[in-house]
């Protein structure tokens, strides 16, 4: 009887571990970027030449967590020389000495979007 219990336990453990080794079960690839990655615009030009439309782009593949995506808000690191509205339309208001960082605070399955840059001439 004792041997039967050990035998059944060994079979149960062996069957429950099938698929535990070998190939990775937790592979997850997420890209979440702001596009275009960089842009240059002329602050002295009339619209639309002083504007750049930014957007978010993402891909998800593999066995990724089921975390809800979030809509983010747009921001610029240089509000004195650039502005950005709720649709991602950025405007050059003045020349930038260094590129402004354009960001979106949204997430894709918990992953934050990478930022982009905007240079105003």
How is this structure best described in words?
A hairpin with a 4-residue loop joins strand 6 (82-84) and strand 7. The strands form four sheets. The protein has a four-stranded mixed beta sheet with strand order 2-11-8-5, with no helix packed on it. A three-stranded antiparallel beta sheet has the order 3-7-6, with no helix packed on it. The protein has one helix at 2-16; strands at 28-35, 38-41, 51-53, 55-62, 74-76, 82-84, 89-92, 100-104, 107-108, 111-112, 116-120. The protein has 121 residues and is mainly beta. The longest helix has 15 residues, at 2-16. Helices cover 12% and strands 39% of the residues.
Question: How do you describe this structure in short?
Answer:
The protein contains 1 helix and 11 strands, in the order αβββββββββββ. With 121 residues, it is mostly beta strands.
């Amino acid at each position: 009887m004792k041997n039967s219990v050990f035998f059944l336990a060994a079979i149960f453990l062996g069957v429950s571990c099938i698929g535990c080794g070998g190939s990775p079960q937790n592979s997850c690839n997420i890209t979440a970027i702001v596009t275009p990655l960089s842009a240059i615009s002329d602050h002295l030009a009339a619209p639309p030449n002083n504007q750049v439309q930014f957007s978010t782009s993402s891909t998800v593949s593999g066995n990724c967590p089921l975390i809800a995506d979030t809509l983010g808000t747009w921001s610029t690191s240089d509000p004195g020389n650039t502005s950005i509205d709720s649709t991602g339309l950025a405007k050059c208001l003045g020349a930038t000495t260094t590129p402004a960082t354009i960001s979106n605070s949204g997430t894709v399955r918990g992953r934050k979007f990478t930022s982009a840059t905007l240079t105003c001439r």
